[in-house]
Amino acid sequence: MRSYLDFEKPVAELEAKVEELRALQSDGDSTAIGEEINRIESKAAVALKELYGGLTPWQKTQVARHPQRPHCLDYVAGLISEFVPLAGDRKHGDDAAIVGGFGRFRGESICVIGHEKGSDTDSRLKHNFGMARPEGYRKAARLMTMADHFEIPVLTLVDTAGAYPGIGAEERGQAEAIARSTEACLEIGVPNVAVIIGEGGSGGAIAIATANRVLMLEHAIYSVISPEGAASILWRDTARAEDAASSMKITAQDLIRFGVIDMIVPEPTGGAHRDGAAAISTTGEAIAEALGELRGLDRSTIVRLRREKFVALGRTLG
């Protein structure tokens, strides 16, 4: 069953009317009802296109967090064949908030690492809502190092509100683990491509998103802190999250202007949650294009270009 966001109410009402008419179609004048269904469907499609053509930053935040939006494991299932997940950081344990392993993307070997939020109550608890602990980031760094050793490109799928802020995580060195993972992103001599598929929150996202190419879905968000967190700091009022989102420049359209990301991946009309298969397919095309641009470069060039990219970004925005 489709879940609607608050601002989608006009579309929800039209689509509900369509469902009512379909239920009546077999009992009445099917021709007349069919014509009415087509009319309302066309009206709903236009309304949806107009609505999603002018989303505010706060509305995009809601879309990026939509529970029916495709998550990391959906992309792995749709794009990666022969996927073999690997677990553990070889220091403390495993963290299900970050999944990773090796497989094939369009016939070529690839290492895939990503935040997994989960799709129902049980899986969300298992994956800690995509908020990784230190062992998750150490696992990511371990897999990147392994991929580098075997000269296998790295793909990361970013979707997290941020790193887990619990006491245990801090005791086990959360900040250091994030820094080590970011360092691994910068130092590997193989191409790496990051895709912001939903939320890209704070250092929890940067830890696996420091890549040669950073792609971002059309309605995803990428920020140093959540709008609620920024509102709490600036105004001591989380109810002003909408104001914070509008001021923070967190949308793909803002970030490509600043050079923070390299490509916007279009989403189906109505967001990736309306047609997950189409969103995954389009993302696959964008990933293939990004990897193709890096194919053939030697190790030293890959590392140099990646470092220059982020140093230039710091100079531009500093």
SSE blueprint and pairings:
Blueprint: H1 9-24, H2 30-52, H3 57-64, H4 72-79, E1 80-85, E2 98-105, E3 108-115, H5 121-126, H6 134-149, E4 154-160, H7 167-171, H8 174-187, E5 192-201, H9 202-209, E6 213-217, E7 221-223, H10 227-235, H11 241-248, H12 252-258, E8 263-265, H13 276-294, H14 299-317
Parallel strand pairs: 3-4, 4-5, 5-6, 5-7, 6-8
Antiparallel strand pairs: 1-2, 2-3
Describe this structure in words.
The protein has 318 residues and is of the alpha/beta class. It has 2 domains: 6-54; 61-317, 2-enoyl-CoA Hydratase, Chain A, domain 1, CATH 3.90.226.10. The protein has helices spanning 9-24, 30-52, 57-64, 72-79, 121-126, 134-149, 167-171, 174-187, 202-209, 227-235, 241-248, 252-258, 276-294, 299-317; strands at 80-85, 98-105, 108-115, 154-160, 192-201, 213-217, 221-223, 263-265. Strands 1, 2, 3, 4, 5, 6, 7 and 8 form an 8-stranded mixed beta sheet that branches. Strand 5, helix 9 and strand 6 (213-217) form a beta-alpha-beta unit. The chain is globular and about 70 Å long.
Briefly characterize the structure.
The chain has about 325 residues and is α/β, with parallel strands linked by helices.
